[in-house]
Specification:
The structure holds two protein chains of two kinds. Chain A is α/β, with parallel strands linked by helices. Chain A has one domain: TIM Barrel. Chain A is built from eight helices and 16 strands. In chain A, the strands form four sheets. In chain A, strands 3-16-15-10-9-8-7-4 form an eight-stranded parallel beta sheet. In chain A, helix 4 packs across helix 5 and helix 6 packs across helix 8. By secondary structure, chain B is α/β, with parallel strands linked by helices. In chain B, the strands form three sheets. Chain B has a seven-stranded antiparallel beta sheet with strand order 4-3-7-1-2-6-5. Chain B has a seven-stranded mixed beta sheet with strand order 11-10-9-8-12-13-16, sandwiched between helices. The longest helix of chain B is centred in the C-terminal third of the chain and has 14 residues. Classes of the chains: A alpha/beta, B alpha/beta. At the A-B interface, strand 5, strand 6 and helix 7 of A face loops of B.
Chain lengths: 301, 256
C-alpha cells in the first residue's frame, strides 16, 4: 500500500493536492463536480474582517496559456464565512485551510482571532494585499513588513500559519527567510504575477483595474524555479502552485521541493482538475514503483 | 438539477450570416434539463486558451437530446468552434445559470433580442404559453428571423434601416405601438438599460439577461459580477454573480 499522505506543520493531508485560494470559493460550487473528501485540503477564497466588494468589471482577461484577474478579493467577511462556509466544509473528510486577507496588520489579526476557536486546520496569510498604512505597497514586497506581519499573526493564531508569498519581488528567498524569521510554520508560493493586457481594438485596458494577476500554465516555469530556490533557502514546508494543470505539473513541484501543491486556474479549465491530478499522482507513483510520496519531495537537487 | 460536463458530438454546423454560426450538439443530459435563458460553457481543444466560452442556449430538442448554440465568432476560441464539423466532439458544461422565469398565461409578453442576444430568445419564444411577440434588433444582416416567425409575430429593427424600423429595438416597439405586461430581453448593455428605463416608466415587469467576462462559469471565481440593488446573498455586498445568480435578473434587481 503506497503512501500518498504528506504533513504540513503537523497537519496530515491524505494527498498533496490542495485548491489554490480564490479559484475554488469555499468549495460549494465545485462540490457539484468533485468529492471534496478526495482532496488533501480545501483552501478557501481570502476572507477579511468585513465584506469587501472587490473591483469593477471586467475583472478577468484570458491571455496565452493563462489569465489575468483583478477580482479585488470580494468576500463576505469573517462573520458570514464562519457561520456558512466552515460548517459546509466540515461535512467533508478534508482539511480546511482558511486564506486570510487584510489592509492593515490589525485586519489580519482580527480575522485570525475570530478563527481561533473554529475547526480550521491551517491559516494561509495572503500578503499580496496592499498595506494601506505604508502607501499601498504589498506587505509581501518588503521583507521587514513580511516579518512584522508574520509575527503579528503568529502571536494570535491558534492554528499553524502558512505565509503566501508574492512572486513580484527581486528575490523570493529574502521574503521566505523573513517569513521564517517571523515564525511562519509553512510557505505557499507563488501568488500571481502582476500583468497587463491592452485591447488594441478598443484601445483600452482589458481589465478595469488596468493590472491583474497572471496565473495558469504560462507562469509554471517561474513558479517551479521559485519553489526550488525557496526550498533550498528555508527549512519550512512549501506548498507549491502556479500553473498546475496536470499531475505531471504537480510532480514537478514536488520534485522541486514542495511538500504539497495547489491547483487553481486549472479548475476553470476543467472542474474535475483537482481529483484528476490527485489520481494522476497515484498513477505516476505506481509507474515508477514509488512507495511513499515523500521520496519525491525535493528529490531533484 | 445537476450541472454536467459532457463530451458532445457535433450534429451540424451552419453559417447563418457574417460571423454568426449555428451549432447543433448532441448533449443529452444537458438538453434534458436546460431551460430558456440558460447557457453552457464550451471548452476549446487548445489549453493555451484556458477559459471556457459561455454561450447561450438557442434551442433544445429533448427528443434528440440536442442543444443548439448560435454564436458570433469573436476571437480564436469561437473561431475554433466554427471549424467543428459533423461528428467532431467538444466538451460542454451545463446547463448554467437560472434562465427566464415562467410567464403566466394571461399576460402579454414581449421577447426582445439585440445582436448576439437574439439566440436565447428563440427557445424562450418557443416555451412561452402566453400572448407573445418578438422584437429583434440587428445591425444589418438578419439571422434566425424566419425561425422566430414560426412561433410568434416578429418585429424588426435595423441600424441601417434595411429591414423593419430604422434604429434600435425600442424604436421598433414605439413605431409599432407594441404593448406588453412583461418584457424579457437579452442584448447589449445600452439596449438593456434603455429597456429597463422604458419598462420602469410604464410599470411593465421586465427581465434582463446580462453578460460579462467569465472564468469559472459556476459561481466560484466572482469574475462576472453585476451591481445589484440589494445586498447579494453570496458576498453580502452589492454584487450578484451573472453566471450563477443570473444571467436573468428582474430589471429592478440590477444597477446598469
Amino acid at each position: 500500500m503506497k503512501n500518498t499522505s504528506v504533513t504540513i506543520a503537523g497537519v496530515e493531508l491524505k494527498n498533496p493536492v490542495m485548491t489554490a485560494s480564490g479559484t475554488f470559493g469555499s468549495g460549494e460550487e465545485y462540490s457539484e463536480f468533485v468529492d471534496l473528501s478526495r482532496l488533501g485540503a480545501v483552501v478557501t477564497k481570502g476572507v477579511a474582517n468585513v465584506p469587501w466588494p472587490g473591483n469593477p468589471t471586467p475583472r478577468i482577461a484570458e491571455v496565452y496559456g493563462g489569465m489575468l484577474n483583478a477580482i479585488g478579493l470580494q468576500n463576505p467577511g469573517i462573520d458570514v464565512f464562519v457561520s456558512r462556509d466552515i460548517p459546509f466544509l466540515k461535512q467533508y473528510d478534508t482539511k480546511i485551510v482558511v486564506n486570510v486577507c487584510g489592509r492593515t496588520a490589525e485586519d489580519y489579526v482580527e480575522v485570525v482571532e475570530r478563527l481561533s476557536g473554529e475547526p480550521v486546520d491551517l491559516l494561509e496569510i495572503n500578503i499580496s494585499c496592499p498595506n494601506v498604512k505604508e502607501g499601498g505597497i504589498a506587505f509581501g514586497q518588503d521583507p521587514k513588513a513580511v516579518e512584522a506581519i508574520t509575527k503579528a499573526v503568529k502571536a494570535k493564531a491558534k492554528q499553524p500559519i502558512i505565509m503566501k508569498l508574492s512572486p513580484n519581488v527581486a528575490d523570493i528567498t529574502v521574503m521566505a527567510k523573513a517569513a521564517e524569521a517571523g515564525g511562519a510554520d509553512a510557505l505557499s508560493l507563488i501568488n500571481t504575477l502582476t500583468g497587463m493586457k491592452i485591447d488594441i481594438h478598443k484601445r483600452t485596458f482589458a481589465l478595469a483595474n488596468k493590472t491583474g494577476g497572471l496565473s495558469g500554465p504560462a507562469v509554471k516555469p517561474v513558479a517551479v524555479r521559485m519553489v526550488y530556490q525557496t526550498a533550498r533557502a528555508v527549512k519550512l514546508p512549501i506548498i507549491g502552485m502556479g500553473g498546475i494543470l496536470t499531475a505531471d505539473d504537480a510532480i514537478e513541484f514536488l520534485l522541486a521541493g514542495a511538500t504539497a501543491v495547489a491547483v487553481g486556474t486549472a479548475n476553470f479549465h476543467d472542474p474535475y482538475a483537482t481529483v484528476r491530478i490527485a489520481e494522476g499522482i497515484g498513477r505516476y507513483m505506481d509507474r515508477y514503483g514509488i512507495e511513499d510520496i515523500r521520496e519525491l519531495i525535493g528529490a531533484v537537487r | 438539477m445537476a450541472k454536467r460536463k459532457e463530451t458532445a458530438k457535433v450534429l451540424s454546423q451552419d453559417r447563418l450570416s457574417e460571423g454568426i454560426y449555428s451549432l447543433w450538439l448532441e448533449a443529452g443530459e444537458i438538453a434534458a434539463q436546460a431551460r430558456a435563458g440558460q447557457f453552457v460553457s464550451v471548452y476549446t481543444k487548445d489549453a493555451s486558451r484556458l477559459l471556457p466560452r459561455p454561450i447561450s442556449i438557442c434551442e433544445t430538442d429533448r427528443e434528440k437530446g440536442a442543444l443548439r448554440l448560435v454564436y458570433r465568432v469573436a476571437g480564436a476560441g469561437t473561431r475554433e468552434f466554427s471549424s467543428y464539423r459533423k461528428g467532431d466532439t467538444t466538451e460542454v458544461l451545463g446547463p448554467l445559470g437560472n434562465g427566464f422565469p415562467e410567464i403566466a398565461a394571461g399576460k402579454r409578453a414581449l421577447a426582445v433580442g439585440g445582436g448576439i442576444g437574439i439566440p436565447p430568445m428563440l427557445q424562450l419564444i418557443k416555451e412561452l404559453k402566453c400572448d407573445k411577440a418578438a422584437v429583434l434588433g440587428y445591425r444589418d444582416q438578419l439571422f434566425l428571423k424566419e425561425e422566430f416567425e414560426r412561433y410568434a409575430p416578429v418585429y424588426l429593427a435595423t441600424e441601417d434601416g434595411s429591414a423593419g424600423t430604422k434604429g434600435n429595438v425600442l424604436d421598433a416597439v414605439r413605431a409599432e405601438g407594441l404593448e406588453a405586461d412583461v418584457i424579457l430581453a437579452c442584448g447589449p448593455a445600452p439596449m438593456l438599460k434603455a429597456l429597463k428605463a422604458y419598462a420602469a416608466e410604464r410599470g411593465i415587469e421586465c427581465w434582463l439577461s446580462l453578460e460579462e467576462r467569465m472564468a469559472c462559469g459556476v459561481g466560484a471565481c466572482l469574475a462576472c459580477v453585476c451591481r445589484s440593488a440589494e445586498v447579494d446573498g453570496h458576498s453580502h455586498v452589492h454584487n450578484k454573480r451573472i453566471c450563477k445568480d443570473g444571467p436573468v435578473f428582474r430589471a429592478e434587481e440590477v444597477v446598469l
